[in-house]
Amino acid sequence: MLLALALLACAEPATRTYEVSQPEDLGVEHLSPESVDAIVAGTEDPPRYSSVPATSGPHAPAATPCGIFRQEVPEIFNIHSLEHGAVIFYYQPGSISDEERSELEDLGRELATHAIVMPYAALEVPMAMVAWGDLAELERIDVEAARSFWGEFAQRGPESGIPCEFTVDEAA
Questions:
Q1: Is the residue at 2 inside a domain?
Q2: Where residue 101 sits, what CATH number does that domain have?
Q3: From CA 101, how far away is CA 163, in angstroms rounded?
Q4: How far is Cα 43 from Cα 62, in angstroms, rounded to an integer?
Q5: Domain range for residue 117?
Q6: What is d(CA 172, CA 164) in angstroms, rounded to the nearest whole number?
Q7: How many structural domains does the chain have?
Q8: 10: part of which helix (H) or strand (E)?
Q9: I need a labelling partner for 104 at 20 to 30 A (CA). Which of 50, 117, 143, 144 fits?
C-alpha cells in the first residue's frame, strides 16, 4: 500500500488534451477614458493584438465582471479581466448547439470565481480558452478541458488577487 502511494505521489500530472500557446505579451497599458469611449463608439480602431482572442495588451481601466454573457463585450474590457487573473471561455456562436453552450455556462456557474463565458464571433474554432498570456483553441466544446485550463491558469494574471466573483448571468 505504501509503495502504491509513493508511486502515485511521483506520477506525472495528467497530460493536457489541448495545446496552449503563449502569444507575444503586449503589456498592461491602460487606455485613456477618451480612447475607450471612442473605441466603444466605433470612432477609433481598437488596439492590434498578438492573437485572436487577445491574451494581453492595451485595455480599458475597467474590467468585465465575471459571469455568463450572451452578448460580446468589447475585448478592451476583457483583457483587464485577464490581468486580474480571470479565465475567459469564448465560444463561436454559429458553430455550437444550445446544449453545448448551456454546458459551458453551467461550468462558469460551478467555478463561481475568475471565470467568464461569452460568445466571440471572430473565433475560427468552436471554443477558445484564454488566460493572461495563454490561449488554447479547441475544435469542439470540451467542459473537462475548460475545467482543467481554469485550474491551471485562473488567478495567474499580473494583478492576481483581485476578486472576480460571479456577478453577471445573462442566461438566467
A1: no
A2: 3.40.30
A3: 25
A4: 19
A5: 19-169
A6: 19
A7: 1
A8: helix 2-10
A9: 50
Whether 3 maps to a domain, the answer reads no
Q: Which three cell numbers stand for residue 115?
A: 471565470
115-119 β-sheet, strand order: 134-138, 127-131, 87-91, 115-119, 66-68, 166-169
Instruction: For residue 117, tell me if it sits in a domain.
Output: yes
For residue 62 the three cell numbers come to: 475597467
The three-class DSSP label of residue 98 is helix
Give the cell for residue 5. 502511494
Q: Which residue has the cell 474554432?
A: 125
Residue 115 has phi, psi (to 5 degrees) of -140, 135
Q: Three-state DSSP class for 57? A: coil
**How many C-alpha atoms does 31 have within 13 Å on its Cβ side?**
25
| 114/150 Cα distance (integer angstroms) | 8
List the grid coordinates of 51. Answer: 492573437
Convert the pLDDT of each residue in 15-41 to its tens digit. 788 999 999 999 999 999 999 999 999
